[in-house]
Structure formats: structure tokens, C-alpha cells
Amino acid sequence: MAEVQLNEVTKTFGSFHAVKDVSLQFPEHTTTCLLGPSGCGKTTLLRMLAGLETPTSGSIKIAGHDVTEWPARRRDIAMVFQYPVIYQGLSVFENIALPLRELKLSKAELKRRVEDAIALLGLERSLNADPERFDNGTRQRVSFARAVARQSSIILFDEPITNVDPESRFRLKQDLKKITEGLGQTIVYVTHDQNEAMTLADQIVLLKDGEVLQQDEPRHVYDHPKQRFGGWFLGSPGMSFLEHSFNPAEGSRLQSDLFPFPIRVSDPDAVGEKTNLRIGIRPERLRVSPMPMPDAAKGSVKRKFRGVAGQYLVAIQLTKHLIWAKVANELGKKLSETVWVKCDLDAVTIFDDREQALSCRLVRLEN
Amino acid sequence: MFEIELQNISKSYGSTTVVDGLNLGFESSRFSVVLGSPVSGKSVLMRLIMGLESPDQGRILFHGRDVTNEPAGSRNFGYVPQSFALYPHYRVFDNIAYPLALAKKNKATIQEQVQALAHKLKIDQLLPKYPNQLSGGEKQRVALARGMIKDSSVFILDDPLVGLDFKLREQLFVDLREMLSEIEGSVIYTTSDPLETLALADQVFVLDDKRIIESGSIDQVYDEPQQIRSLQLLGVPAANFVSGELAGRICQTPFGPCEIEVAEEIATATPVQLGFRPEAIRLEKSAPPFLSADGRVLLQEDLGAETLLYFESASSRLVAYWSNAEPAPITGERFRFGIDPRSFHVFDPKTGTRLTRSKDCALRQNQTTHSAPAGSRSRPGMSASAALGRSSECEGDLATGTS
User: Fold this and answer.
1) For residues B339 and B337, what is the distance between their CA atoms, to the nearest angstrom?
2) What's the pLDDT at A13?
3) Is B113 helix (H, G, I), strand (E, B) or coil?
4) Pick from A170, A174, A310: which is nearest to B277 by CB?
5) What domains are there in chain B, each with its CATH number?
6) Which residues lie below 8 Å from residue A315, measured CB to CB, with a gap of 6+?
7) How many beta carbons lie within 10 A of that of residue B98, not counting itself?
8) Are A279 and A366 in contact (CB under 8 A)?
9) Which of A264, B54, B89, B130 would be a feasible disulfide site paired with A252, CB 3.0-4.6 Å?
10) What residues of chain B lie within 8 A of the CB of A39, using their CB?
């Protein structure tokens, strides 16, 4: 069992900076998801951990040892790839056992480890079938079993459930839960799918353009994004943003088309100078009604369609801004043209014009 | 009259039949989505419409005119194929202009048309760049522009977002409607993704087992699917199914007996499949006529705004939607839930067709005009459709597409 540390790790490919000066810690027994869009550097980071790439600068430590220059096979790491690996012509048992052969285990120990992995992944009934004929989901479960049987202190997963059908995806997520919660290994999991990260991770590392934007528990990253990017990237759809000019020299008042009453910024000093503030609001935090409500902003429905579990996503045009709201099926059906939108002041996050979240809040200004 | 109509189309490759006696009609100025599983033959269907493949049997009509034997060039539809490729050594401008250059348009026309379209699609600033300087989303927009540059009234987009990152896809399918609303004309779009379908479609056509098994407005197909496959394919997460037994109006379900509004009463007890959506499961305490039962959570998926609960009940694996207004039960926990029997979609397991009465169909039958029920669009020309989709099913021909 091992803690993993990255110290100021940079990786360049020619003039391209894939990973820029990243320092991270992956505590023992925890599952960390490296989350971000294509090209954010998450896979390069994982490959450096595995020893498949060498950092251009910086160091990697596992359980206190500097492993930066160690070859992959010395690192006591198991890895599961996006496309499941199946060794041709070998049975399911042998597919799982193959990497154990070089560990020089006793016959009984090898058998026990493979059988434990088979039981954990529920592969008993597939043992006599030809693994080359499995669907992608079952193939990937064989890969999971191979990684588990190795009993390495670290398991790395590189988007392992991207290429399977929805039914297998559910099954694999359940299996991943068993592995992450049951075995106590240090797990690093790369994905571009925020839902996977939210479901599987103890902590999320949000990456963009080779840099770490935030490292926190999933719910915290969702509720308290440190940058505008996190507010947008997590959630489907993510936050809507309302841009307002703000000048602390003229007092703390702020005009927003989301709030039809006077408001102010709780701590104008936190903003500093004259700037554009962006108010971020999650679609599910808005209350929408076809009837007027007190303290609600009037808007008009620009578009609506259904999404997850039939809930409606409604694009609402306020005086200046277009915002997205998520409303229940029955209510969504009734919305057309004019609507009223109500938002709790503490439901918003305020970002400055460098896209950083500010610690200040919105407060109602009593007349 | 339909803008494009396919009549009794069949196409085989060797011993593999991809479409078999397929009928469908696309109306003009609509966003029509063909929804089908990844190997259902959507691309072949699009290539048949384009004229890139010829059917073994059947006719293709364009505004009533038989174009079955006309080459792709004379049909002149815009086309974005599934695996789009930009020419890496051409600038974005020339990539978009390529179909016009191929048609030997003069330079001034090309310049003008590319600029105008780029402006509409908000990609003006990309024109001087090379493809390797673009992000994934920008490349996709350029590929779309190239498919739309032709002066055409029909644009065919064959699963254009497949294989992109989740977030990029989400952004594009939110933006795509707006981008396309700038272009006058009809869009025919294929996908296997239910979220894309829900976000984009005016009309949805469910392609399954070599035919269009059902078509209608997106609300009609979502709320009252006429085919079990439609319920399976359209919705996220996928709908729940359990077995039951129907006699008259009384249905025995794993959660207890209930009354079902059936289209036609069958006196003898008949095995049925009951489908219900994740949002039909109520987690608060519910009184009769709601059915209720116990479940045990297998996996809790927090999507941020909502939680999906995968659970076990009545020896079935089910999924429920839980709004995050209050904490959801955790993995391993037992909880009690309710289902409104009115939310059951009851199907004949042998034919896969709907047995539950459809309000929508009843409503439409009572109407002399073709103004559609609330929430869906008017459907001009539906009476003219000979053997298609829902309207004929409503008139009693339940075997359409499955016999």
C-alpha cells in the first residue's frame, strides 16, 4: 500500500506542454479521479505514474521512494487501459494469471489470487468460454481481474469504461466500486466523464491545459468550483454565467437581471478594483414558475427539451442574459413564453474577470 | 407531401440484410432524428437517401418525384458523414469551400458563400487557420460547415458527435439547434444517443430490426412509446422492465395487482412486459392507487444535480431518479418506493407493441384536423402516409413494422 507524490512534474512533447509543473498527492487507500477534457494532460500524468513516460522535469515518489527513473515493471503498479487487453489463445484463468507468473509465487498462492479475483468480478460462469469471443464489457472485467490479482499497491485506470455499452457500464461501475472500496489499494482513475468521477472518486483532480485547477472531494468540487471552468465542466449542463460590471469605488451595490431587488456584494474589498464579475448559477438551483412569484425575475422561454430522467432543460432569456434551468417533467411541460425565475442569493458563486471564484457573497440590500 | 419519402426500401450486402421493406417520410423544415442502436444500419440508410448507395428494392421520392435512380450529385443534399476528416494541408476556408470548388463555382461566389456561412455558424475567426490549430469542438463545427455549404434544402448529419468527449458533445448538441436554425432547410440526423435525440429532435424515427418501427414528435414517443424498443432506446437512464400478467384491465405486477387502461381488453390472462421510467418511481411515502415495494440500493450515482439509484426489487434490477433536494439512500440501504400504475407502459412480449391505451392516439382520433396535442408540433400530411409509424398504429394497424 502506498502514497503517491508528484513534485513539480512537467512533460513536454516538442513545443507542446502536456503537463505543466504539477504537484499532487494521492493518499494511500484512496481513489483519485484525474478529470478533464481531451488534451488536459490527464493521460500523460497517468502514463508517467505507470513509467510509460518519463517526466521532462520534476519527480515522482511512491511510498517514499523516488521512482522517477524506474522502469514500469519495477513500480508495483497494475494498469487497466481504455481498450481491454486479452491475450489470444489463453483461457480466462491464464489471461488473469499471466502477469503473476513473473512474480514467482507458489502454485497454491497463484491459484488462490486468480480465483479470488474471478470471484470478485463474478467471472465464474465465463471460465470455460473463449475470452476472445467476449463482448467489450466482459473483456474489461477480465482486465480488472488481472489488475486485482496482481495485488499491487497501486492500480491505474485509463478511461476503462468508455468503450462499452450502457448495461456493461453499470456492471463495471459496480465492479469498480468493489475494487475501490474493498481492496484498499491506491487508485488513480482517468476520465473525461464527470459522472464517473463523481460516482467513483474519493477526490477529484480537475485538470485543464496541463495544469491542476482544483483538488477536492467530488461534492465539494461540484458545489464550490474554484474557477469558472469547474462550474461549467461539472454538471450537465454546468453553471450559467451572468456578467455584470462592478466598481467597488462606487459602493458595494450590484445590478443583476436575475434579482429584481437591490443587492450588494458582501465584501467589496475581496473584489479589489473595478472589474466584471460573473455570477455562476447551477440550473437545478433555480425555481421556475409560469406564474409570478415574489422576488422572481421575469424571463421568456427560448428553448426547452428533456434530458436525464425526463426533466426539462429550459433556456430562459432574462433582460440581458440567457440562463439554463432544470425543472421537473410535469412543470416543464407547462412552461412556455413568459416565466418567473427565483434564485436564492446563497446559491450563486461569484467569479472575477480572471475566472477565479471569490469568497464574497451576494446580500440583499434593505431599503 | 413529404419532402423525402422512402417506400418499401430493402438493402442487403451479401447475405446481410440491413434494411428490409423500410418506409418513412421526412417533412420539410424539420429537425428529424433517426434513433437506432450502433449497428442498426443508420449510416446505410443515410447513404441510400444521399444516393451513395442504391436500394435493392423500393423507391425514394423527393417532393413526390422518384429519384431512386438519380445519382448523388443531382440530389444535391448536404452531408456530414460519421467520420469526418478535414484536409490537414488546407486552411479552414478551403476545407469549407471544397464542395463548391468541386462544383466549379467561381471564386467570388465561393468567397461570398463561405464568409456568409462562417458568420452564421460563428466560426469566422477560424477561416485562416489550419485544422491542427483547432480544438476538437472547432474541428466539428468546420466539418458541419463543410456539410452545409451546398445550396441545398436538405442536410444529412450522420451521427456527427460520436466519439467526442462527453462535455464537448453536450455543448455541441445544445449549440447545434441554434447553429442549424440559421440555415433554412431540413435536417436529417442520426444518433444512438438518447440525450442527443431529446435535445435536437422535432420528429423522431426509431430504426430497429431493419425498419422504422415508430415515428412521431419527440414528446409522443417519449411519453407514449408504441413499441417496447422505443421505450428501451429513448431515455436516460434506460427505462425499467418487469414481467406481469394481464387479464381484462387487471394487471398482476411484481409490486402487486393494479388496474391498467388498456386499448383493447383481453379476457384470458396474458403475459406482458411492463416498462416504466426512472422518474416514475416515487421515493416519498405514497398511498393507493400507487403500488409500493422495498428496494435495496446497488449503486448510487450522484450526477451533481440529481442522483440515480440503481436498486434491486422483486428480483429485478431497477433504476430510480432522485432529485438532490434531500439525501438519497446509500449503497446497501433498504428503502420503500411507490409507482403510479398510470406510468406503466404495457407491451405484448411477443410483438413488442403497446397494449396500454394512448391518450395521445385517442385524442388524435377524435380530431378531424391534424393539429397535434399540446407539446408536439402539427404534422401536416400525416393522413397521406400510407404505412408509417404512429398514425397508422393508432388506427389499429399495430403490426406495422414488426410483422
Assistant:
1) 7
2) 94
3) helix
4) A310
5) 4-231 (3.40.50.300), 236-358 (2.40.50.140)
6) A301, A302, A303, A304, A322, A323, A324
7) 17
8) no
9) A264
10) 135-136
Longest dimension (CA), chain B: 74
pLDDT band at B379; cut points 50, 70, 90: very low
**Phi-psi category of residue B93: left, alpha or beta, with phi > 0 → left and psi -120 to 50 → alpha:** alpha
pLDDT digits 0-9 by tens, A11-44: 999 989 999 999 999 999 999 999 999 889 999 9
Which letter does DSSP use for residue A309 in this model? Answer: G
Q: How far apart are CA B211 and CA B205, in angstroms?
A: 10
User: Model pTM?
Assistant: 0.88
Collapse the DSSP code of B267 into the 3-class scheme (helix H, G, I; strand E, B; otherwise coil) and give the result: strand
Helix (H) or strand (E) holding A75: none
Q: What beta strand segments (E) does B4-151 contain?
A: 4-13, 16-26, 31-35, 57-62, 65-66, 78-80
Surface-to-core class of residue A40, CB atoms within 10 Å of its CB (0-12 exposed, 13-18 middle, 19+ buried): buried
Chain B (294-333) residues lying within 8 Å, Cβ to Cβ, of chain A = 298-306, 308, 310, 321, 323-324, 331
Q: CB of B401 within 8 A of CB of B213?
A: yes
CB A190 within 8 Å of CB A155: no
pLDDT digits (tens, 9 = 90+) for B278-328: 999 988 766 777 899 999 999 999 999 999 999 999 899 999 999 888 888
Residue with cell 468503450: A163
Residue A293 has pLDDT above 90, yes or no: yes
Strand order through the sheet with A240-246: A240-246, A275-281, A349-351
Residues A83, A103: Cα–Cα separation, whole Å: 25
Judge: B238–A166 Cβ closer than 8 Å, yes or no.
yes
Residue B363 dihedral angles phi and psi, to the nearest 5°: -60, -45
- Show the cell assigned to B125: 475567426
- C-alpha R_g of chain A: 25
Q: Of the candidates A172, A60, A160, A163, which has an alpha carbon nearest to the alpha carbon of residue A120?
A: A172
Dig out the grid coordinates for B360 from the structure: 395521445
Residue B239 φ/ψ, nearest 5 degrees: -60, 160
Q: Is B222 within 8 Å of chain A by CB?
A: yes
Taking alpha carbons only, the member of B201, B262, B208 closest to residue B231 is B208
Distances (CA, A) of B205 to A231, A262, B78, B315, B383: 35, 50, 20, 33, 17
DSSP state of A36: -
In chain A, the residue whose alpha carbon lies closest to the alpha carbon of B376 is A333
Q: Per the structure block, which three cell numbers stand in for A161? A: 469504461
Q: Which residue, chain included where needed, has cell 421526412?
A: B26
Treating both helix axes as pointing N-terminal to C-terminal, what angle do B136-148 and B92-102 enclose, rounded to 10 degrees? Answer: 20
CB–CB of B236 and A311 under 8 A? Answer: no
Q: A357: which DSSP letter?
A: B
Q: State the residue for C-alpha cell 431529446.
A: B198
Range B29-51 average pLDDT: 94
Phi, psi of B153 (to 5 degrees): -105, -5
Residue A1 has pLDDT above 70, yes or no: no
CA–CA separation, B294 and B90 (whole Å): 62
Q: State how far the Cα of B215 lies from the Cα of B225, in Å rounded to an integer.
A: 9
User: What are the distances in angstroms from CA B231 to CA B274, B301, B399?
Assistant: 11, 22, 17
Q: C-alpha grid cell for residue B104? A: 466549379
In angstroms, the CA B71 to CA B62 distance is: 13
**pLDDT at residue B375, rounded to an integer:** 37
* CB contact set of B394 (below 8 Å; sequence gap of 6+): B358, B361, B364, B365
Question: Distance (Å) from the C-alpha of residue B71 to the closest C-alpha of chain A?
Answer: 37
Between CA A64 and CA A61 the distance in angstroms is 6
Q: Work out the angle between the directed axes of helices B166-181 and B136-148 (0-180°, nearest 10).
A: 30
Q: Does the CB of B211 have a partner CB in chain A at under 8 Å? A: no
Please report the sign of the dihedral spanned by the C-alpha atoms of residue A196, residue A198, residue A200, residue A205: positive
